[in-house]
Amino acid sequence: MQISYLAKVLPAAILAFGLAAGCGNSGSNTATPNTEPTAAASPTAANPQTEASSSSKAAKNPAVAKPSPKAKQAENSIPKVFYSEQGIAIRGTDPVAYFTQGKPVQGKPEFSHKWGDATWQFASAQNRDLFANNPEKYAPQYGGFCAWAVSQGYTASTDPNAWKIVGGKLYLNYNSAVQWGWEKDISGNVAKGDKNWPGIAKEKK
């Protein structure tokens, strides 16, 4: 009986602890950056088959569907602000590698590109050029801030290992525990994040 009870309450307790310790509360502005290494959080491999699957799901899900021209225009009006440490986005992780290699790959200072209010680093000149030609395609959503925190109306730092590609877009979270909670309702959290982000971005600008 005790084992059955623990099986029911333990997952909820883990989520509550991860969210509280990770992203703080709605009264916070930006949580302290996570410096502890975490395990990769169930990433979506970015190969053609996966992309096709993601696109199919996006078509059924309004939260991640392709935006209309009007929505695209509104998106372009959002200030380009990004979470960075010492001016470096995603702690120097190559944003293109998430899509082409299906994993976080450390970038190199010699392959850098300035975009928005941050410097982005890449593992190769080819990845740098791909990003430079279409940064909106590869840059993480919500300025690289924690997707869960933005869905709740505030911001927190992110761990490059806590990531997921949904509908062809890259989302980062504070750590793997917070990511686990965010994935419980991806479409709902993305919808809330998309609604909150324009106002948050303007405040940060």
Walk me through this protein's architecture.
The protein contains nine helices and six strands; from the N terminus they run H-H-H-E-E-H-E-E-H-H-H-E-E-H-H. It is an alpha+beta fold and 205 residues long. Helix 1 packs across helix 8. The longest helix is centred in the N-terminal third of the chain and has 22 residues. The protein is globular and about 35 Å long. It starts with a helix and ends with a helix.
Kindly list the characteristics that best describe this protein.
205 residues; 45% helix; two-stranded antiparallel sheet; single chain; disordered N terminus; alpha+beta
Question: What does this entry show, briefly?
Answer:
The protein contains nine helices and six strands; from the N terminus they run αααββαββαααββαα. It has about 200 residues and is of the alpha+beta class. The strands form three sheets. The chain has a two-stranded antiparallel sheet. Strands 3-4 form a two-stranded antiparallel ribbon.
Topology, please?
Blueprint: H1 2-23, H2 48-60, H3 69-76, E1 84-85, E2 88-89, H4 95-100, E3 108-115, E4 118-122, H5 125-133, H6 135-138, H7 147-151, E5 159-166, E6 169-173, H8 176-182, H9 186-204
Helix pairs in contact: 1-8
Question: Could you give the order of the helices and strands?
Answer: HHHEEHEEHHHEEHH
Radius of gyration: 17 Å
Widest beta sheet: strand line-up: 1-2
- How would a textbook summarize the main sheet? 2 strands, antiparallel
Alpha-carbon distance between the two ends: 54 Å
Number of helices: 9
Q: What amount of the residues lies in strands? A: 5-15%
What's the average pLDDT?
A: 76
Approximate shape: globular
Number of strands: 6
Percent in helix = 40-55%
Structural category is alpha+beta
The low-pLDDT segments are: 1-17, 24-65
